[in-house]
Amino acid sequence: MRDLCPALQNKTYFNYGGQGPLPSPSLEAITASWARIQKLGPFTADVWPYIAKEVNSTRRLLAQCCGVPPHRLALTENVTSGCVLPLWGLPFTEGDRLLISDCEHPGVVSACVELARRQNLTIDVLPVKHLRGDQTQCDAAVVEAIERTLTPRTRLVVLSHLLWNTGQVMPITAVAKQLHQHPQQPFLLVDAAQSFGQIPVEDAAAAADIYAFTGHKWACGPEGLGGVAISERVVAEASPTVIGWRSLRDESKVDLSSTDLFHHDSRRFEVATSCVPLMAGLRCSLQLLENAGSAQQRWDHIRSLSGKFWQALEGLDHVTPLLEVPPASGLVSFQIIGDVPPTEHVKQLGGQGLWIRDLADPSCLRACTHITTTDDDINALVAAISAL
């Protein structure tokens, strides 16, 4: 897998949580698909069966990855659209409350803020940023925190599967069961940007009401293509928001007297024209990952690498990992004690061909290990951090 990624040949790369490298076979699959469409004619009777096959096979594969039937999987362009499109269609009432964790991405948080402003909703905060220890204790603490912060009017809970800043895994299936017992049965929206392609996601995706992911991070696919798994009740109760011809049961015409215009499945949250060749690229990347081992095997390998990195950081003076125990994923966030801002550290490391990133909340540095990471990569990064 590593040898297939040109981006990994001339640098030491630890930014899989931002964007994964695209393997050459995936790029070739994209260009081959584009060539096929042009040969058939981009808008001819001959091209539609090919496009339908690409769309349907991609939907089936992503649904299989998420442990849901295909009618519950909508194709999207990115995580944000996967979260926001069904979110804004949920049946809220003035005075309802949204419970959002304090580790959510600004793209999702800002959408909730604007939704609350327009519909007169109230936002409550679920504290999880401080949870940085044993997974079992963390799981129990999350359930307890939700129990404390839920109100009779809570209608939605927003919680990432894998926190993008601290690297802590959230107990999504346990939270889903907990919410099901609440009188309001709040919807559960899960940002899966850091989980899909890295850790097993089937149970969490099947349990959540909205489970939005992208193909361009840990799955090493092209940017511009992702998906969202939605529950049966979201299919039944949520209205389409951003509407286009792909939302419609009959895209050829609109009957102004009809009250039943939209698909009765996840496609009501799809909009309009997307880049079909990207689908071949993502399927190829997912197959390459599968060739490298099962989801569990890949996760075990990623954790072994991140554990080595975390352990090495623990041994450095003036360096503090955010997590108190070895990470449960490939995300390793840490702080370098001193007066130099994290952005400057990123620049200094980048000048040596070592690529990590800085985060604002909490202020820290983040490096990600994947199955393509090597011990030499880790040793080089640790040595450079020690020199800083």
- Helix count equals 12
Estimate the helix proportion, in percent: 25-40%
Instruction: Please tell me how large the radius of gyration is.
Output: 22 Å
Cα(first) to Cα(last) distance is: 31 Å
CATH level 3 topology of the largest domain:
Aspartate Aminotransferase, domain 2
User: What is the CATH-assigned architecture of the largest domain?
Assistant: 3-Layer(aba) Sandwich
The helix-strand sequence is EHHEHEHEHEHEHEEHHHEEHEEEH
Q: Using DSSP, what is the number of strands?
A: 13
Global shape: globular
The average pLDDT value, as a whole number, equals 97
User: Low-confidence runs (pLDDT<50, min 5 residues)?
Assistant: none
CATH class of the largest domain: Alpha Beta
Structural class by sheet pairing and helices: alpha/beta
Number of domains: 2
CATH superfamily of the largest domain: Type I PLP-dependent aspartate aminotransferase-like (Major domain)
The largest sheet has its strands arranged as 2-8-7-6-5-3-4
Textual characterization of the structure:
- With 388 residues, this protein is an alpha/beta fold.
- It folds into two domains: 2-19 and 294-387, Aspartate Aminotransferase, domain 1 (Alpha-Beta Complex), CATH 3.90.1150; 47-286, Type I PLP-dependent aspartate aminotransferase-like (Major domain) (Aspartate Aminotransferase, domain 2, 3-Layer(aba) Sandwich), CATH 3.40.640.10.
- Helix content is 39%, strand content 15%.
- The chain is built from twelve helices and 13 strands.
- The strands form three sheets. A seven-stranded mixed β-sheet has the order 2-8-7-6-5-3-4, with helices on both faces.
- The protein is globular and about 70 Å long.
- The two termini are 31 Å apart.
- The mean pLDDT is 97.
